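Justification of computing resources. Each target in the renewal requires a structure prediction run like the one illustrated here; the chain below, 170 residues long, is used simply to show the kind of job we budget for.
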Amino acid sequence: MEEAQAHGGAARQAASDAKKTIARNQEARHDYTIEDTWEAGLALMGTEVKALRMGRASSWTPGLEINGEAWLYGANIPLYSQGSWTNHAPTRKRKLLLHRAEIDRMQDRVAAKGYTIVPLELYFIGGRVKVEIALAKGKQEWDKRQALREKQDQREAERAMRRYVKQARR
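Resulting C-alpha cells:
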C-alpha cells in the first residue's frame, strides 16, 4: 500500500515538474539565428499567474531591455476575470529574475555588433512561470527564405519516407 502511494506521489511530482508551454514567440526563430539560451524567472502579481494558468497569454511578441536589470516589456497578459481592484495592468514591464553574472554576460555579448536578446517562450515548470530568452543575431531576408526552403524540403522528405514505408508494408 505504501509503495503504491509513493509511486503515485512520484507521478504527481513528475507531472508538476513537466514543462507546460503558455506562449511561444513564433517570429523570433524565423527572424533571428539563435546563438545561446537562458531560463529566467518572472516577477509576477497573483492575478497574472492566475490568468496564465487559465491559458490567457495573447499576442506574445515581447521585447527585452537590459540596464543593470533585465525587464520584459510588451508581453500582454490579459486581466484575470475574477480579479477585483487588485488586478494587474496587462502590458506592464515585468522584471526577469537572473543572476548578476548572467545579466553582465548578456550585456557584454549584446554590445557586440548585430546581437540582441529576444524572449522565445513562456512556460510553467514546477509551478513557477519561466521565460526562455536567447542571444540572437538578426537574419537577412535571404536567410529567412533559405530556412523556409530547408524546412519545406525536410517535410517533403519525411512525406516520401512515410509513403515508401506504407508501400513496403503492403
